[in-house]
Amino acid sequence: MRLSRYFLPIIKETPKEAEIVSHRLMLRAGMIRQQSAGIYSWLPLGLKVLRKIERIVEEEQARAGAVQLLMPTIQSADLWRESGRYDAYGKEMLRITDRHDRDMLFGPTNEEMITDIFRSNVRSYKDLPLNLYHIQWKFRDEVRPRFGVMRGREFLMKDAYSFDLDQDAAVESYNRMFVAYLRTYKRMGLTAIPMRAETGPIGGDLSHEFIVLADTGESAVYCHSDYLEKAVPGEDVDFDSDLSPIVADWTSDYAATEDVVDMTEFENSVPEDKRISARGIEVGQTFYFGTKYSAPMGAKVATADGTEVPVHMGSYGVGVSRLLGAIIEANHDDDGIVWPASVAPFHVGVVNLKVGDELTDSACEDLYAKLEAAGIEVLYDDTDNRAGAKFATMDLIGLPFQVVGGPRGLKDGLFEVKDRRSGEKEMLSPEATFNKLVSALTV
RNA sequence: CGGGGUAUAGCGCAGCCUGGUAGCGCAUCUGGUUUGGGACCAGAGGGUCGCAAGUUCGAAUCUUGCUGCCCCGACCA
Asked: What is the ipTM of this complex?
């Protein structure tokens, strides 16, 4: 992509409304713009990252056996009356009336709707286990939205729903999502710790919140420091096998959020030098809630002996839009964002320092074309801004590598290649530059 | 939902107390000089001062009401 033809509105000053670093950087880097309280437009650079996060989520959901569908944002109030949540949910739910005066709502979650889909299409235990998910915009009318996309009113969420014949099978489904989550966050460069959690309005018995440690996190968390070093299951993990040893390993040491923490238990079970007391961002939550929705809504299947039983369900959320904030909170420095390569909007920024100069133009154009042809995503700065402004923009948007082509180096046939994270720079020939980037960025 | 702020050019702000018809910095545009870490000089464009009433000869400024946004708390993915 040529920067001269892209839409990347950079802000030099610090926007006054942004309190936390991820919000500031997302505004400054031209990723988002606020449309009203807690509601944002996603500009091209932000959308690119959002899509990359979705892709990782989709790949790991597929690996764990979940099947993607798409449910609407607007739901009928009648469904919610069946579960009893229409009255229970409160003012967080945005209620809408259509032209026929029918009560509608902008969905804050989809348990009722998925249960409806299930009950009208599945009858037999032979169709289980089943895990259906979608990635869709949700709306919760938070009293006080803040922190940019971390706590918006409109937000993009992956929510999966598992259906099983009994509790034992449901726990196996739960474990599959649990392991998928460990892998999902790891691939985005995050260390997410599963913590004991409250079940909130969704209800249920078994639940974990996946927490990323960050100073700007919304809640206080307490956990064992070993979690920071624990190995995440690899690509080869067999989701058809018994995953309970992995889950047991990842839940053996103490970890809880402030809502449910028992300080006595924390101090008794974790040695003093291993205790972490920090702040955390919730990036996902898993629930097993049994027949809470299937029973009142009549989602039943026939068992092997012909009797009908309500299915056991679980739901599993990932805050997709919120993850951008969490990733930036965990990956930035004084100059801007430092994207992990897996979610970076582009892999490489090629900076032409002297547009119009025959030598730099041809060298930069050539490298740009070759990298794109090799499947590497390049943002090519072919604008005629000053060098300092170009460097500052590249640092701000945080692409993993910067390649600088200017008359000074190119008269000796060399580009300067900078690693954004380490700040290390080296002078390389065009061939060496190409080879280094290809080997660093392709698996 | 309680408490506290704030609203003036695209962004950040001054002007308001003490009423007289709007200004600064950045950004934008033009010309010139520059050019390896957010350049400099000169010039230009851009605002029904959040909305609505009221007071007044006259309101960005005073009064009342409404609305948006931000911060703290409670709540929450």
From this structure: 0.90
H helices within A41-155, ranges in order? 44-63, 77-83, 85-88, 111-119
What is the full DSSP assignment across A226-286?
GGGTPPPP-TT--TTS--HHHHHHHHSS-EEETTT--HHHHHHHS-GGGEEEEEEEEEEEE
- Residues in chain A with pLDDT values less than 50: none
Q: Which positions 139-158 on chain A have a beta carbon less than 7 angstroms from any atom of strand B?
A: 140, 142-147, 150-153, 155, 157
Distance A144 CA to B3 C1' (A): 14
Whether the beta carbon of A11 falls within 7 A of nucleic chain B: the reply is: yes
Tokens of A406: 């200017």
Cα dihedral A208/A212/A213/A218 (nearest 10): -80
Rounded to 5°, the CA angle A367-A354-A345 comes to: 50
| A311-345: pLDDT as tens digits | 999 999 999 999 999 999 999 999 999 999 999 99
Interatomic CA–C1' length for residue A17 and nucleotide B70, angstroms: 6
Chain B positions with an atom below 7 A of a protein C-beta are 1-2, 11-13, 25-27, 34-39, 68-77
DSSP state of A420: T
Residue A77 near residue A86, CB atoms below 8 Å: yes
Tell me if the pTM is above 0.90: yes
Q: From the CA of A420 to the C1' of B63: give the distance in Å.
A: 57
Place of tokens 């200017």: A406
